[in-house]
Q: What sequence folds into this?
């Protein structure tokens, strides 16, 4: 999941590539999350995921690696709930 998030964050600042890469990255993270047990779209994590999607649309905020931050906190939350 980190590789998908990294690629999405690296392609984010490129003006017209962002329009294609952001939806593809969001879908790929959803698929990868369902396979690894780290769902970004669960009822408990949907608010952070929606905030990530909005941040990716804003012009100056897309410089921040929002996909990586979201995946990190989702994995951390999953590990804490399993322990």
A:
């Amino acid at each position: 999941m980190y590789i998908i998030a990294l690629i999405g964050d690296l392609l984010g600042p490129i003006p017209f590539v962002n329009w294609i890469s952001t939806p593809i990255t969001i879908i790929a993270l959803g698929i990868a999350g369902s396979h690894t047990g780290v769902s970004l779209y669960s009822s408990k994590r949907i608010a952070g995921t929606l905030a990530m999607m909005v941040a990716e649309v804003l012009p100056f905020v897309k410089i921040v690696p929002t996909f990586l931050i979201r995946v990190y906190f989702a994995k951390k939350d999953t590990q804490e709930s399993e322990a």
